[in-house]
Amino acid sequence: RNQLSILNVPVDVITMNEAIQRVQDLYSEPGLHTVVTVNAEMVMRARHDKELHDILKQADLAVPDGAGVLWAAEQLGQHIPERVAGCDLAVALLQKAAQHKTPVYFLGAGPGVAEQAVKNMEAKVGPLEVVGIHSGFFDDQEEKNIIQAIEAGQTKLVLVALGVPKQEKWITEKLSHLDGVVAIGVGGSFDVMAG
Ligand code: UDP
């Protein structure tokens, strides 16, 4: 794994195609696999948020999401070939998921947004194996139902759009018991897909 470190946050030196391939490989490896999309905001936040920092350090894949990360790498005398923007990665993974009938759960964003995002994505990549969809605003009972649905649906990919750092913490706190599952915090991606 070719990584560099920006203010102690690891970033994989990886292209979009390599990131997509890595996620396909992770689906068949035991345990929960976390993918983080590193940008300047996240690096700065991690300096005073130890929980987030630990999550970033333990991620199975840390893609260079922000232009600031590429710039910081250059300042360190290193080179990242291209940006791997979280939203673009999510779209590319959904394209693969449509091809391979990979079960996907969509969690996050305001009421109706994730539903519209799925509709728009299906128009783009074809039918998806949708395990479930839930907005990013839920109570404890709804949260239990969400986790049960993810467990019961043979889910391979969980897209979590709750914003940074809530999504990263939620994934680690609530999904760590899962096996052969990839979870990604995708920030405002559902809003973009739905728009
Ligand atoms: N959000 C959510 N639940 C919350 C807080 C936020 O679902 O409790 C959603 C919000 O509706 C938006 C996304 O999380 O769709 C955060 O988007 P933003 O662009 O702020 O992401 P970030 O910049 O944090 O990656």
UniProtKB/TrEMBL annotation:
This is N-acetylglucosaminyldiphosphoundecaprenol N-acetyl-beta-D-mannosaminyltransferase. Keywords: Cell wall biogenesis/degradation, Glycosyltransferase, Teichoic acid biosynthesis, Transferase. It catalyses: UDP-N-acetyl-alpha-D-mannosamine + N-acetyl-alpha-D-glucosaminyl-di-trans,octa-cis-undecaprenyl diphosphate = N-acetyl-beta-D-mannosaminyl-(1->4)-N-acetyl-alpha-D-glucosaminyl di-trans,octa-cis-undecaprenyl diphosphate + UDP + H(+). One of its GO terms (molecular function) is N-acetylglucosaminyldiphosphoundecaprenol N-acetyl-beta-D-mannosaminyltransferase activity. The chain holds residues 2 to 196 of 241 of the full protein. The gene is tagA. The lineage of its organism: Bacteria, Bacillati, Bacillota, Negativicutes, Veillonellales. Belongs to the glycosyltransferase 26 family. TagA/TarA subfamily. Catalyzes the conversion of GlcNAc-PP-undecaprenol into ManNAc-GlcNAc-PP-undecaprenol, the first committed lipid intermediate in the de novo synthesis of teichoic acid. It comes from the Bacteria. The keyword Cell wall biogenesis/degradation applies. Its EC number is 2.4.1.187.
